[in-house]
Amino acid sequence: MNGPFDFTLALADDALVAAQRLAEWTTRAPEMEEDIALANIALDQLGAARLLLTYAGELEGAGRDEDALAYLRDDREFRNALLVELPNGDFAVTMAKLLFLAAYQLPLYTALAGCPDERLAAIGAKARKESAYHLDHGALWVKRLGDGTEESHRRMQAAVDHVWPYTHELFVADPAAPVDPATLRPAFDEVVGPVLAEATLTQPGSAWAPAGGRAGVHTEHLGYLLAEMQVLHRAHPGAKW
Amino acid sequence: MYGNDFSAPSGPPNGAPDEVTGGLLGEVEAAEAELRAAAARGRRGGPTPDEDLAAYFAEVVDAEQKIEPRDWMPDAYRRTLIRQIAQHAHSEIIGMQPEGNWISRAPSLKRKAILLAKVQDEAGHGLYLYAAAETLGISRDELVQLLLDGRQKYSSIFNYPTVSWADVGAIGWLVDGAAIVNQVPLCRCSYGPYARAMIRVCKEESFHQRQGYEILHTLAHGTPEQHAMAQDAVDRWWYPSLAMFGPPDGNSTHSAQSMAWKIKRFSNDDLRQRFVDMCVQQAEILGVRIPDAELRWNDERQAYDYTQPDYDELMRVISGDGPCNRERMAHRRAAHADGQWVREAAAAYAAKRAGQKETVAA
After folding, report:
1. Where are the domains of chain B?
2. φ and ψ of B68, to 5 deg
3. Interface touch A145/B345, C-beta < 8 Å
4. A3-23 and A91-113 helices, crossing angle to 10°
5. Residue B56: how many CA atoms within 13 Å on its side-chain side?
6. Residue B198 · residue B270 · CB < 8 Å
7. Under CATH, what is the fold of the domain B23-321?
8. Which Pfam families match (chain B) (predicted)?
9. Which of residues 175-234 of A touch B (CB under 8 A)?
10. ipTM exceeding 0.95?
11. What CATH code would you report for A3-235?
12. Tens of pLDDT, residues B183-222
């Protein structure tokens, strides 16, 4: 990645795509309380995405606002990590994604809150509080499912095995960035390791580390997500909503 | 959201809007003040040992005092309230589906955030209402099962599809508008927990109506395609919204008893009229046409004459043959069934934790 624009866009796209996926749970969650909780987290991610996209547009200086960036870029121009675009799967997969994303975003936003760029620092200061809640929520469910019933344990382990390889991309080094993601890995491991242990789950050892999202080379899933998200906006060029 | 268009309809008291919801919100506040005043002036003491309980109950209701969960109440009053509050709760939960259908495609990030928050509010309303019903001695699980088994209904308005973005606006303006007209009188319901829940729900509902109005206003003042989208949505949602007030007064089975119990305070037709009168002015400002050639001011009645909705259609939708009844129920049942293993895991985990605590304590 080069420069604050790409960095900001990557964070924005992580949040936006995560929000889009989480919102898919609306009306489908396992409990009514959980429907509300997942919508809350989706709203937090969407809120962070909007702030970050707006700032990215300003950094770029080409007149693109949050909607131009969200709705008028193709998948090759999205910079989110692959983890967030993975389909929701069952509730265990969604909770694995939530835990890992929050365990990355919390130290990221915390570090950002202290960075010299005032705008990013303000966004980080706001978002880290939200990430702390996301982390609690994800960790609690991973423990419940991991140490719940035989079926939930099996599903949760399968979910962790499935999502784990995608965590590596989150920490690919970028020394020029306002916060180098490689520096966040220890904080992630410190949080995730004990949660998995308490959940009676095994941390996967797989060396497979799929990546490409930061360079705009995504899984096949992102194209469908964007097609749905962008269809109405693109059908009415220039319209106000 | 909610209407009187269940299989066994009944409704509640008043409202009088001029702007989007200005007048109605004033009535919610008045109901809240009344509730406080009633609490402050105190209720007469409990019934004496040889007092007739039915007479005591009637005296409390007639004095505009609230019946509370531990009070004696007639079985039929309890049953009526359980049915009504549960159906209202089910309506909130099922009502998330038609609007939830557009969250993923909302045309701007701001609209997406507002819609997501709105659908989330509906889940919250469902939860308060189930909690209010639980004060009457039934559990949420039992009520949810009654919904899933098709033994309790939800507002049939949610059996219509949302086929365009403008439908999200029309639902906010018309369906939430009708719900508010219906619910504002419920803020004065004789059953305390329901009245209090309604005050809270109505305040949030007025935001919902406002956002729907704003969506339609933006569309109606946008491109020709957007204007057409808005008009098409109003054309499709107008009559089903009128039908939310339930059958005409002559055919409404539960109304008289509910009125006497002060659960309901206005007739279906009175509320429908109030809604029509409110919408006419708003439609002009919005720049959309209400699809009724007979709609005109009646100076004598000081109200608008209008065409009644098709009540045969309402009955068909109530009995299960609306465009989306099957899908709405299948969706809810699937979500419930798919979540079973998760709920079981949460219960098993909680039980293990409780067991560990006991072991530590011992």
Report:
1. 23-321, 323-361
2. -110, 165
3. yes
4. 150
5. 16
6. no
7. Ferritin (1.20.1260)
8. PaaA_PaaC
9. 228-229, 231-233
10. yes
11. 1.20.1260.10
12. 999 999 999 999 999 999 999 988 899 999 999 999 999 9
